[in-house]
Amino acid sequence: MKNYQEKIEQLQSHFKTHNKYKEYVGHSSKVHSVGWSCDGKRLASGSFDKSVCVYTLERDRLNKEHTFKGHGGSVDQLCWHQTHPDLLSTASGDKSVRIWDTRVQKCVTTINTKGENINITWSPNGNSIAVGNKEDLVTFIDARSYKIEAEEQFHFEVNEISWNNTSDLFFLTNGQGCVHILSYPDLKRQHILKAHPGTCICIEFDPTGKYFATGSADALVSLWDINELACKRVFTRMDWPVRTISFSYDGQLLASASEDLIIDIGFVETGDKIADISVEAATFTVSWHPSLYLLAYACDDKDSYDRKRDAGSLKVWGFPSD
């Protein structure tokens, strides 16, 4: 415990001097999803305005590089390839998935799917993309041929989907507070975890492969041991349904966000609070940088001049406070 105490104090003092955020406006409507490329050089945002913005990170600032257009509906979720820093996939309400390549700054393929897509995940080995729609149908796409490999209709409310770090298990969180674990690629049910009394909203795997975390409508975040499927601890500082969570690159920090007016940053091994970020509105998405303590996030902010309009901005927190 003592060595954890030192680490906790170290991290707390780091964020006392690195607690500045910068805001970037790239969209005309609310930002639903943000994510960093695997090399950390780019940050992408997907918005209700049907576009995807890509920024490059240079020292202590982001520069807007490109806006991808083409989707005919809201871009609800995006994810980058986990080892190829130029490839980005997006799920949209226009019943399609698009793959974008930042080297050529265009859409390299469009995959038509059966329904309005709300979530997407790329397997860590890069071979497959899974996308879930509003009717709880999950479509599996071969990421090399861009052909649909399988479709699985679930008879419960599917919220977020994700592979484990070795890409051989597929996880779904559902409306009954459970996490369903399927083998991949044969999609045979391995386990159902009763994780929360309320709807299980989001799931995230830690980069070290030890844990995964789930966020729920009961305002709790629970941390699970991957091998034992046992709950290790619960983060209880939120008052509202937890919409989005993210582990830092070293697996030490877990950021959680909701309609609370703070984003909570906790120490994974003990649950201690390391820092929090004040926000002015519900937060839809958070994402830690893959090698730095920088957190990207987007809230339901309104334009400061016209309160009826969405701000369309994203923020990055963790810059040195000069």
Topology:
Blueprint: H1 2-17, E1 20-25, E2 31-36, E3 42-47, E4 52-58, E5 61-68, E6 75-80, E7 87-92, E8 96-101, E9 106-112, E10 117-122, E11 128-133, E12 137-142, E13 148-153, E14 158-163, E15 169-174, E16 178-183, E17 189-194, E18 200-205, E19 211-216, E20 221-225, E21 230-235, E22 244-247, E23 253-257, E24 262-267, E25 273-278, E26 283-288, E27 295-299, E28 313-319
Antiparallel strand pairs: 1-28, 2-3, 3-4, 4-5, 6-7, 7-8, 8-9, 10-11, 11-12, 12-13, 14-15, 15-16, 16-17, 18-19, 19-20, 20-21, 22-23, 23-24, 24-25, 26-27, 27-28
- Biggest beta-sheet profile: 4 strands, antiparallel
Number of strands: 28
Euclidean distance between termini CA atoms? 33 Å
Stretches where pLDDT falls below 50 for ≥5 residues? none
Order of helices and strands: HEEEEEEEEEEEEEEEEEEEEEEEEEEEE
CATH superfamily of the largest domain: YVTN repeat-like/Quinoprotein amine dehydrogenase
Number of helices: 1
Protein name: THO complex subunit 3
Family: Belongs to the THOC3 family.
Keywords: Repeat, WD repeat
InterPro entries: Tex1/THOC3, WD40/YVTN_repeat-like_dom_sf, WD40_PAC1, WD40_repeat_CS, WD40_repeat_dom_sf, WD40_rpt
